[in-house]
Amino acid sequence: MHCELCGGVTEYVPGGEGMRCPYCQDFQPLVVTGPVARRPVEALRGRLPVTVTDEHRVVCPRCATTSTPALLSSRCPACETPIVRELGGEVRPGALVPFAVDRRGASAALDGWAASLWFAPGSLARVSDTASTRATFLPAWVFDLETVTRYRGRRGDHHYRIETDGDGRRRQVRRTRWTYARGTVGRRFADVVVPGVRHLETARLPAATVPFRAEYLSGVETARYTVAPDQALDQAKTAVRPRVRAACLADIGGDDRRLHSVVTTYPSIDGDLVLLPYWTGTYLLDGRTWRFTVDGVTGEVRGERPYSAAKLTVPVAVLVLVVVAALLVLLSR
């Protein structure tokens, strides 16, 4: 997107919910809407991840440097100008989730995470000082599944009766009366999230979304999906399976219940590709590079972490002393 005032290329401002021109500082807010509009799943099927080849070369509009970036959006390796690639045969994202956490908030979250780690080196306390952090959109598949399930099983109802044992003592004994059960249960599962790349861990979709526009990727790294939509749909069905079984058990009722067969059909499935905001990066410690991510909405940190050999030695030594002392007490008896 070009700035209407000076013609410069505007960039997305993580945490600022808008686009800013780096030259004249003109700011244009994003339009935040409600839930993502889904597409029929047939529109997604068979759309395999794109394999980047020399045919995907791009030319920087500023310095004319030619490159073949694997990412959907990145920066020119020569002059750092934002580059957004044309979408090829892959699924076009339907929406993206704006960043609620800016760069400063991501650094604070990273330091808080490091401070909470047990047996971490003391030098990890200010991890953000050595961290290289970049704003990144990561793809995720989101499905709405309507299910109709036919089940067969048994229902157990408890009842109690008084019995006399061999010694003539009377006691109350619980017995279960089992009856055959069958039925049909319909459920709809909304916003079932499946990561579009293998290293992403997410279980929910934030409520605020923005309709996708390619210019919103300007200045932010955006990964292409590597999990095909057909594979993601299989994962979504697997994810709801325990909830389908729970619905069938609840429908059987009784004090105890068993399921012998469960057959689920899907009259309607809608889905879409959504871009989720993360701060991703690495930090240096003890000559090694450690990776991390900060959720751009919640600030939750996930990352690789080192351990302090000195801090681990003390509790191990204490444990050994406790074990030795306990053995001496046992032997002295």
Tally of domains: 1
Our count of helices gives 3
Q: Outline, from the CA principal axes?
A: flat
The CA-CA distance between the termini, in Å, is 83 Å
Poorly predicted ranges (pLDDT <50, ≥5 residues)?
A: none
Structural class call reads alpha+beta
The fraction of residues in strands falls at: 35-45%
Proportion of helical residues: 10-25%
Task: Offer a quick outline of the entry.
The chain is built from 3 helices and 16 strands. It is an alpha+beta fold.
Task: Outline the structure in words.
- This protein has about 325 residues and is of the alpha+beta class.
- It has one domain (about 30-50, about 90-315).
- The protein is built from three helices and 16 strands.
- The strands form four sheets. Strands 4, 9, 10, 11, 12, 13, 14, 15 and 16 form a nine-stranded mixed β-sheet that branches.
- A hairpin with a 2-residue loop joins β14 and β15.
Keywords:
38% strand; 18% helix; 333 residues; alpha+beta; 3-stranded antiparallel sheet; 9-stranded mixed sheet; 16 strands
Describe the secondary structure blueprint for this structure.
Blueprint: E1 11-13, E2 18-20, E3 27-29, E4 39-40, E5 58-59, E6 66-67, E7 73-75, E8 82-84, E9 95-96, H1 103-115, E10 131-164, E11 170-195, E12 210-211, E13 221-222, H2 229-252, E14 256-285, E15 288-295, E16 301-303, H3 309-332
Parallel strand pairs: 9-14, 10-13
Antiparallel strand pairs: 1-2, 2-3, 4-14, 5-6, 7-8, 9-12, 10-11, 10-14, 14-15, 15-16
